[in-house]
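User: I'm curious whether this sequence folds into something compact or stays loose and floppy. Could you predict its structure so I can see for myself?
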Amino acid sequence: MVQKTTIAVPADKSGAISVNVFHIYSKGRKRIGYVGDFIKTSVRGLDLNTKVKKKSKHVSIFIRSAFRYVKKDGMITYSDLNSVVLLKKRLTPVGKEIYGPIYNTVRRKKFLSSFPGVI
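Assistant: Here's the prediction. I'll summarize afterward.
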């Protein structure tokens, strides 16, 4: 789960180190975003070789949560950090690779077809 002013870590090769969440896209007046939701983020920290600029705003997809997620069959999944993937205008990713595991809820949205290889 993620809400406004949450610090997240990009899980792709875009060059950003940390991002700040400032808007959650939802159908209703929802204040909390879950895994698979689209969010609006701004870049806060950069690496040396970057494809993005500091304070630039991107639409992102939320792929891993630090909050414990309990499935219907009883399996509990969680990560150490909140992770996002930065997207361009037509919902294509900025980076070419994704690091780490991805939950099945994101796989159902046919998001991974835009990546040549998932690590």
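Summary: The two ends are 23 Å apart (CA to CA). Helices lie at 104-107.
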